[in-house]
Amino acid sequence: MSTLAQGKAGLERASTAQKVADMLRERVLDGELAPGLRLSEEAIGGALGVSRNTLREAFRLLTRDRLLVHEHSRGVFVRRPTGDDVRDLYAARRVIECGALRLWNGVTDAQREAVRAPVRQAVARAEKNDWTKAGSANIQFHRGIVGLAGSTRLSDESDRLFAELMLAFRVAQEINDFYQTYVPWNRRIVELLNNSEIDEAVDQLNEYFDAAEEDLVQRLEAN
Amino acid sequence: MSTLAQGKAGLERASTAQKVADMLRERVLDGELAPGLRLSEEAIGGALGVSRNTLREAFRLLTRDRLLVHEHSRGVFVRRPTGDDVRDLYAARRVIECGALRLWNGVTDAQREAVRAPVRQAVARAEKNDWTKAGSANIQFHRGIVGLAGSTRLSDESDRLFAELMLAFRVAQEINDFYQTYVPWNRRIVELLNNSEIDEAVDQLNEYFDAAEEDLVQRLEAN
DNA sequence: ATCGTAGAATCGTTCAACAATCCAACGATC
DNA sequence: GATCGTTGGATTGTTGAACGATTCTACGAT
C-alpha cells in the first residue's frame, strides 16, 4: 500500500492560484522579479493567462510567505528586506536552530544524517568552486537542523524564513564572499556534534549567526 | 510626532477580505463555528454580504493560519486538530519557548515584565475562579516568553500556533481541569527566572509541555 | 520651488456565467 | 443483500466585465 500512499501526493491537483504562486515564487527567488518591483495585476495576469481574481489569490499566498508585500490600493511589490528585517530573521533563527540543535542526542539517525550529509555535499561542491550549489547545500544543512525538532510547522516556517533571507542576500548582492567562510564553520559544528559536545556546537552556531547577520546588515545598510 | 505615528496604524484601512477573515477567526476561536464544520461559500458570503471572490480571499488567509483546511473542489472546513497535530505543535513550542527562555538574562526589563505580569494576573483570576480569563492570561505568559527572542516573525508564528492549540482544546473539551494546574507551574518558572536559575526554569517549562501535550493527546484520541 | 488640481491608470469589489468536480440517490448486477 | 455504475443536482474553480475608490502623474497657478 505504501506505493499507493506515495501516489496520493501527485494526485492532489493544485489549484491555478497555487500553481501561479509557485511560478512567481521561483521568479522572485531567482531574481527575475527584483526586490522592490511592483507586480501589476493586469500585466502579470495577462502574461500568465489567468484572471485578476485568481492572480490576486496567488498574491495573497506569497504575501503570507513574506515574499511580496501588499500596500492597500497601491498593489503588491517584491519584498525588499531591510536591516531590521534581517535582524528579526536572525533572532528567530537563533532561537529555532540553537534550540533544535540541543535535541541532537534524542533524535533518530535519519534526522542526524540530514544534518551531516549537506555538509559533505557543501565541501565537495566548494572544492569545485560551485558556490551556487554549495549555497543550496548550506540551506539543506540548516533545514536539517530545524528538522531535529520533528515539527512540520516549525520546518515550514523556517523555509519561509530561509526564502526571505535569500531575498536579503540578493539585495545585498552577497555572492560568494561570505559563502566561502561558512563551509568550514559547518564542518566544525558537525564534528562537535559527533563528539556529543552539544553546548560547544550551539556556541559555534550562535557565532556563525552573529557573523552572518552583521555582514548582511552592513551590506544592506550600505545599499 | 509620536502621537501622529500612532494614528497611522488606525489610518490603514483594512481590506474587506481582511475584515471578513478577522470576523471568521473570532467565530472559529470562540467555537461558534465548530471544528469539522464545512463553510459554504454561498451561505457565508450571503450572510456577511460579501462576494464569493472576496470571501475566498478571506478563506485563503485563514487557511494559512491553519484555522481552516482547504480541500480541492470540496470546500473549506474548520480545522479539527488531531493527536499528531498536537504533538507537532508542542514540538515547535518546546524549541521556540525553551530557546527564548534561555535569553532571559540578555533582554530588557520590559521584556521580562511581559513574562511576569501575566502570571500575577493568572493568579488573581484563578483566585476568583475566573478560569476563562485565567486561561487567556496563561497565553499572555507564553507570548511573553516568545517575545524574549525579540523577533516579530517568531511571535507572529507563535500566535498562529496558540490559535491552533485553542482549537485543539475545544475539540478535547478541555475546560478547567488542566488549567488549574498550570498556574502554580508558571509561578515556579518565574521564581526560578528571578533567581537566575535559567536551566531549571527551562526544565520546568519542558515538563509542563510534556504534561500538557500528553493530557491533550489523551483526550483527543479518546474522542 | 511649492502647491493644488484634473485626468489617467490601477486597485477593490461585485456580479454573472460556465466548466469541472463532488455528492447523494437510484437502479442494475451478481 | 451488498456492491457497482449512472445520473442529476449542488458546490467549487475560474473567468470576464463592470464600476466606484484610490493613487499617481503631469500640468499649470501661486
Outline of the structure:
Chains A, B: Residues 14-81 form the HTH gntR-type domain. The first copy, chain A, has 223 residues and is mostly helical.
Descriptive overview:
2 copies of one chain form a homodimer. With 223 residues, chain A is mainly alpha-helical. Chain A is 73% helix and 4% strand. The first copy, chain A, has 10 helices and 3 strands, in the order ααβααββαααααα. The longest helix of chain A is centred in the last third of the chain and has 25 residues, at 198-222. The N and C termini of chain A lie far apart (55 Å). Chains A and B meet through helix 4, helix 5 and helix 8 of A and helix 4, helix 5 and helix 8 of B. Chain A binds a DNA duplex (30 and 30 nucleotides) through helix 4. Chains A, B: It holds the Pfam family GntR. Chains A, B: Keywords: DNA-binding, Transcription, Transcription regulation.
Give a topology summary.
Two copies of one chain form a homodimer.
Chain A: H1 2-11, H2 16-29, E1 38-39, H3 41-48, H4 52-64, E2 68-71, E3 75-78, H5 83-101, H6 109-127, H7 131-147, H8 152-172, H9 179-194, H10 198-222
Antiparallel strand pairs in A: 1-3, 2-3
Helix pairs in contact in A: 2-4, 3-4, 5-7, 5-8, 5-10, 6-7, 6-9, 7-8, 7-9, 8-10, 9-10
Chain A binds a DNA duplex (30 and 30 nucleotides) through residues 15-17, 40-42, 50-54, 56, 72-75.
List the defining traits of the structure above.
DNA-binding, three-stranded antiparallel β-sheet, GntR family transcriptional regulator (chains A, B), transcription (chains A, B), 223 residues, mainly alpha, transcription regulation (chains A, B), Arc Repressor Mutant, subunit A, homodimer, Four Helix Bundle (Hemerythrin (Met), subunit A)
